[in-house]
Design goal:
about 180 residues, alpha+beta, Glutaredoxin, five-stranded mixed β-sheet, 5 helices, 10 strands, globular
């Protein structure tokens, strides 16, 4: 399994607005109209990547708990579905239901949003403060499909807690590691 590290965008980078299709809701969801909230988490994921599947029993629960803290969560799949039909919108809708997402799972058909965020892998996480300025980018935690470290979400959860307390971004931010985004 070849692993790709995320690109570490500079802290403070402004979020890019988007309007993307939600296969499960059968409508477009607008990040640009999401102006209220204590923060915004954008997670680039896909259905088939072993690094994402490894986290599937943990991240939906953690991300759903962020919603209760007024953190808006957006999961995005940008993979080329011609080469990877397991990541198709129909499969995204199925996964959204099966994995209990209470947050939108959006399809980036043109891959422009992944490119504008400089997303490199799945999973790839970007946490923005209420002003949509990058606060954290990096890994979920130290767990990987190839190691025995328990899944905890400690890195992303710690960043959310710091942000909610009005404290500075975590000094140490490790890149996420996963499957490369399947570019067209």
């Amino acid at each position: 399994m070849v692993a790709t590290e995320s690109y570490m965008s500079p802290i403070g980078t402004k979020a890019v607005n988007f309007d993307l299709y939600s296969p499960s809701k059968k409508t477009k969801i607008s990040f640009s109209s999401s102006t209220k909230g204590k923060g915004f988490l954008i997670a680039f994921i896909c259905n088939h990547c072993p690094y994402v599947v490894h986290l599937k029993d943990n991240f939906p629960t953690l991300f759903n708990s962020f919603l209760a803290k007024d953190i808006k969560v957006f999961a995005i799949s940008s993979n080329d579905i011609t080469k990877y039909p397991a990541d198709s919108p129909d499969e995204m809708a199925r996964i959204s239901k099966e994995w209990d997402f209470d947050f939108p799972y959006l399809y980036d058909e043109t891959q422009e949003i992944a490119k504008s965020y400089k997303a490199a892998c799945t999973p790839d996480f970007f946490l923005y403060n209420k002003n949509k300025e990058l606060f954290y980018r990096g890994q979920y935690d130290d767990s990987r499909p190839s190691n025995q470290i328990p899944i905890s979400g400690k890195d992303i959860n710690s960043a959310v807690e710091l942000m909610l307390k009005g404290l500075p971004s975590p000094e140490e931010q490790k890149p996420s590691i996963g499957c490369n985004i399947k570019w067209k």
